[in-house]
Amino acid sequence: MAGFLPYIYDVAMKPLEKARFEKIRAGLVRKARGRVLEIGFGTGANFRYYQGADRVDAIEPNPDMSKQAGNRIRKSKTPIRTYEAVAEKLPFADNCFDTVVATLVFCTIPDPVKALEEIYRVSKPGAKILMFEHVKMDQPLIGKTQQSLTPVWKRLCDGCHLDRDTLDLINRSPLDIIQVDSFYGGLFLTIESQKPF
Length: 197
Fold this sequence. Notes:
Elements: H1 5-29, E1 33-39, E2 52-59, H2 63-67, H3 70-75, E3 80-83, E4 97-103, H4 112-122, E5 123-134, H5 140-156, H6 166-171, E6 176-183, E7 188-194
Parallel strand pairs: 1-2, 1-4, 2-3, 4-5
Antiparallel strand pairs: 5-7, 6-7
InterPro entries: Methyltransf_11 (IPR013216), SAM-dependent_MTases_sf (IPR029063), Thiol_S-MT (IPR052356)
Keywords: Methyltransferase, Transferase
Protein name: Class I SAM-dependent methyltransferase
């Protein structure tokens, strides 16, 4: 199953990417500046949107996903270096990134609290953290449905948690939230936060 996931992912995301997802993703990623860390680059869907970045260091723990990104790396106008690594143990020094980007990935990270600690560690003071994530819905019925479907969904979709409350995790981290925008009735959020100076 793991070997087919990158192909399934690209096919499943295509209709969404062609619609509003592409605009949301592009608008967020284009805000990245300086030296950028991308968490969980998957098949490289963000790579074409980097415009103000000097370089991008991108991590992805799934080698099958990262193999699919080769063509997008070659086409990118921004230098991109990839690493097989997990968000909970980033292979970078403290205080070295100006921007961190994570899109549709925090749902799959096994220990998101540790991942946020690592993002905080490797970010420079004042660094922006740009995220686009699906989250647990506020509506009780939908939230309970997400919770009940998550065990099966995780097995089918590379560890994806339908019921993860990423905004709450960031609220409880040392990061300062700057702006949150909601899409599709609150199912998807863009979250812009910052490491304090």
